[in-house]
């Protein structure tokens, strides 16, 4: 399986919808999209990971690097990780929890809740 990333703007949020497998081969694509959003002046990014079926350590590394990048530019990163995915919950949610790093991220169940909260002034 491959990976796709679709970008859209929702108010002040750059939303990146990621679908497929997030692994050693595909994770640089996500990294580039996050960097592109920041280069375009976006300081609020939502990564919708609800359609990611597989995530390895490379994918987790990209998520942590994205968090670091957003914090370095006084930005915000939010992840969409539904508790119940296609059949048995979000794969990425389970991987991040198993590694003990889920607490590092602001996680939301859907796009509406991820983008509903106003940004700080």
From TrEMBL:
The organism of origin for this protein: Streptomyces cheonanensis
UniProt protein name: Anti-sigma factor antagonist
Family: Belongs to the anti-sigma-factor antagonist family.
Domain STAS: 3-118
Lineage start: Bacteria, Bacillati, Actinomycetota, Actinomycetes, Kitasatosporales
Domain of life: Bacteria
CDD domains linked to this entry: STAS_anti-anti-sigma_factors
InterPro entries given in the database record: Anti-sigma_ant (IPR003658), STAS_dom (IPR002645), STAS_dom_sf (IPR036513)
PANTHER family with a match to the protein in the record: ANTI-SIGMA FACTOR ANTAGONIST TM_1081-RELATED, ANTI-SIGMA FACTOR ANTAGONIST TM_1081-RELATED-RELATED
Record SUPFAM superfamilies: SpoIIaa-like
């Amino acid at each position: 399986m491959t990976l796709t990333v679709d970008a859209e703007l929702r108010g002040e949020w750059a939303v990146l919808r990621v679908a497929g497998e997030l692994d050693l081969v595909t994770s640089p694509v996500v990294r580039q999209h996050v960097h592109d959003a920041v280069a375009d002046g976006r300081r609020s990014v939502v990564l919708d990971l609800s359609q990611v079926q597989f995530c390895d350590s490379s994918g987790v590394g990209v998520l942590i690097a994205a968090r670091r990048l957003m914090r370095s530019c006084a930005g915000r990163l939010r992840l969409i990780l539904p508790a119940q995915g296609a059949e048995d919950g979000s794969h990425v949610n389970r991987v991040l929890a198993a590694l003990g790093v889920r607490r590092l991220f602001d996680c939301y169940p859907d796009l509406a809740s991820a983008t509903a909260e106003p940004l700080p002034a």
